[in-house]
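Materials and Methods. Structural model of ONAC010 protein. The 170-residue sequence of ONAC010 protein from Hibiscus syriacus was retrieved and submitted for structure prediction as follows.
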Amino acid sequence: MESTDSTTVSQQPNLPPGFRFHPTDEELVVHYLKKKASSAPLPVAIIAEVDLYKFDPWELPAKASFGEQEWYFFSPRDRKYPNGARPNRAATSGYWKATGTDKPVLNSGGTQKVGVKKALVFYGGKPPKGIKTDWIMHEYRLPDKTNNKPPGCDLGYKKNSLRVIIFYQF
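The predicted structure was written out as tokens:
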């Protein structure tokens, strides 16, 4: 059976002409990630929920709800070892490698840390001999102190396990 573009269009949010989804780091953390982690309603359902590590980067644009040059996802963070803190960043045919240090995401006044941003690059093959590609990921997470849920509140996610990902290719 032949697939049509109408299926793809119906899955995209109904947005006005000229709309561009290009939030700041603070907006991503405060209005999307924090709300998603606390099960609060989102301003618009524009960020798809996908386990990014089950796919290669070139497969991910088709899984996004919206985007042409960059794509946004909510993704769980898998652990490399069951009782460890080290993340598992292996994908189908390669792995994501962190570059640089974590960057704080500050509120608009610059007085409060609302999140953390990490840059990652996709390497094809197995470490340490992987081949660097031009696929880039920016991972946003809540700071550790804000991941402690209040008594009686079940977020539905393990502590520090949900991420907002911006994903693009140079």
